[in-house]
Amino acid sequence: RENTALPRRAVNHGAAERVPVSISQRRRRTVVTGGAGFVGSHLVDRLVARGDEVIVVDNFFTGRKENVLHHMENPRFELIRRDVVQPILLEVDQIYHLACPASPVYYNLKYLNCLLNLYDYKTNVMGTLNMLGLAKRIKARFLITSTSEVYGDPLEHPQKETYWGHVNPIGVPLRVRSCYDEGKRTAETLTMDYHRNEGVEVRIARIFNTYGPRMCLEDGRVVSNFVSQAIRKQPMTVYGDGKQTRSFQYVSDLVDGLMALMEGDHIGPFNLGNPGEFTMLELAQVVKETIDPNASIEFKENTADDPQKRKPDISKAKELLNWEPKVTLREGLPRMASDFRERILKEVEGAFD
Ligand code: NAD
Ligand code: UDP
Ligand code: UDP
């Protein structure tokens, strides 16, 4: 594919002529929205290691500059503080669109709920629209990170990509995250419309629960909660009876899957997750075995509309992307715990400064 962007040197010297530069003659340019977040920063590490010129667009709403600090001196890396809700002009070959306020803890801040829900929706809808408009203009390939939550509280188990989902569009008190589920569903719709109507090359990933180093300590998701609680010697908070299930994917497996999807020939959607299924009580048990044998649990009330079961069927990704996760929960949790220990220690030391 020919790229008609001006080569850097021509721009710098004010050359008027537009010189087509083939992608094989220069480095691949990739933008990662949400690249200062948990998943995004691991993806950025891999893209930089591959030799890409990488631009991160992030407004640090839930992400942290620290996650990409180690690339700051690299001339092939650029960090732009910006909200994807605003239009942006860039010249790249690939767009990984991850930006989204994904952390559940923010939805539980009662007084901020209304604002945050609207913000989430705006990011998923207007942010995705802008990134698709960008992809259309510059003829870049576009990948969206959708979520298993598009399946809602599923009536099919495990979930295949052909399942249309069971989502409550208006939410109920205490379960205020329909903005997230429906926002991602709309983002998928927009993505397919830009593909069909505008010819944009698109890829759709439906990500299942993922964990690993650099997750936000106060994220509110179950793995980060249990691991930080165990390290802080606090009881692990099991919501409800703890018999609801999830499957947990280690972040490096997800990054492999996202890159295989972007480079492959198939649009998707593809489920990217680890099919190993655990109840929350079993997860607490694995944390006990791998992080602290003395860790205890306490039961707390669950939120309404909490999906009772979730497990991906990944046969489509196995067959068409030649991808499957490699890291088990027992291998992944200790890797995450060493990062969490370091950061919690810094927090404690900071408190005495
Ligand atoms: P994260 O919160 O760590 O990362 C999201 C990043 O997007 C953050 O750096 C945040 O600052 C940025 N961001 C949010 N709104 C923005 C905006 N309007 N403009 C610019 N930047 C913005 O979350 P994550 O876990 O790394 O998730 C990454 C993507 O993967 C998200 O799209 C999420 O919905 C999807 N996903 C993640 C999981 C998971 O288990 N981690 C599961 C399903 C889907
Ligand atoms: N857009 C952007 N960067 C670009 C091109 C488009 O942010 O390089 C935004 C644009 O501002 C618009 C959205 O993407 O809000 C959709 O663009 P499109 O061209 O599809 O729609 P139009 O501008 O014609 O409404
Ligand atoms: N959960 C829990 N304790 C916690 C946080 C979450 O038992 O401290 C439960 C929650 O009720 C849900 C499951 O863990 O059933 C996964 O929650 P998470 O927010 O991590 O992911 P999602 O609900 O988006 O799958």
Verbal overview:
The chain is of the alpha/beta class and 353 residues long. 37% of the residues lie in helices and 16% in strands. The chain is built from 9 helices and 15 strands. The chain has helices at residues 8-12, 38-50, 113-138, 178-198, 222-231, 251-263, 280-290, 315-321, 329-351; strands at residues 2-3, 21-22, 29-33, 53-58, 77-81, 94-97, 141-147, 202-207, 210-211, 236-239, 245-247, 249-250, 270-272, 277-279, 297-300. The chain has a 7-stranded parallel beta sheet, sandwiched between helices. Strands 1-2 form a two-stranded antiparallel sheet. Strand 7 (141-147), helix 4 (178-198) and strand 8 (202-207) form a beta-alpha-beta unit. The chain is globular, with a radius of gyration of 21 Å. The site of one uridine-5'-diphosphate has 13 residues, from helix 5 and strand 10.
The percentage helix is 25-40%
Tell how many strands the DSSP assignment holds: 15
Bound molecules: nicotinamide-adenine-dinucleotide, uridine-5'-diphosphate
How would you sum up the major sheet? 7 strands, parallel
Protein topology:
Elements: E1 2-3, H1 8-12, E2 21-22, E3 29-33, H2 38-50, E4 53-58, E5 77-81, E6 94-97, H3 113-138, E7 141-147, H4 178-198, E8 202-207, E9 210-211, H5 222-231, E10 236-239, E11 245-247, E12 249-250, H6 251-263, E13 270-272, E14 277-279, H7 280-290, E15 297-300, H8 315-321, H9 329-351
Parallel strand pairs: 3-4, 3-6, 4-5, 6-7, 7-8, 8-13, 9-12, 10-15
Antiparallel strand pairs: 1-2, 11-14
Helix pairs in contact: 2-6, 3-4, 5-7
Bound molecules: nicotinamide-adenine-dinucleotide (NAD) and uridine-5'-diphosphate (2 copies).
One uridine-5'-diphosphate binds at residues 87-89, 129-130, 133-134, 136-137.
